[in-house]
Fold this protein.
Amino acid sequence: MTFKGPGLPDSAFYRGKAPMTKSEVRAVTISKLRLKPDAKVIDVGAGSGSITVEAALVAHQGHVWGIERKDDAYEVFNENIKRFELSNITAIKGLAPADIPDETFDGMIVGGSGGQMEAIVGTAEKQLVSGGRLVINIITIENLGRAVEAIKTGEFDELDVIQMQVSRGRAVGTVTLMEALNPIYIISATRR
């Protein structure tokens, strides 16, 4: 594959039983991070590692850590690191925020919080560099509220919340039927 994203086709990734962020959402998520080639990034709740891989392709001179707590997803994540032959990713089997490395980051992606949203946002506040970007992908309105409140009370500016709804065409006989994917909220903010 010569195309390096962001927005690689979903078929480029090994999926297994792990959740995977769809191509269109990955592209928007990566754009909200505003990554430079030498960026250091952490992906919390990495799932299949699709966003981690795309961040590592953009930050090809930097480093990306992905943390995942579920065994099946962690195995899929490692398979995708091998598939893309990326040496600038460190996969961590663990829980956030406790197992987030003691590093400073230019970007933090949160794809799963394991019920620790406020604590993870607090960690982002401590470990993001000034001007660093926090991007959170959320599917429930309860977590949306928790994340927005945590960001508002923290050391962040440029809070932006979007709801993204993607529909994909599927051939049905001689016509195309549009099938909706689940909507997702994408929150982004900049560390003061």
Remarks:
- The longest strand covers residues 128-138.
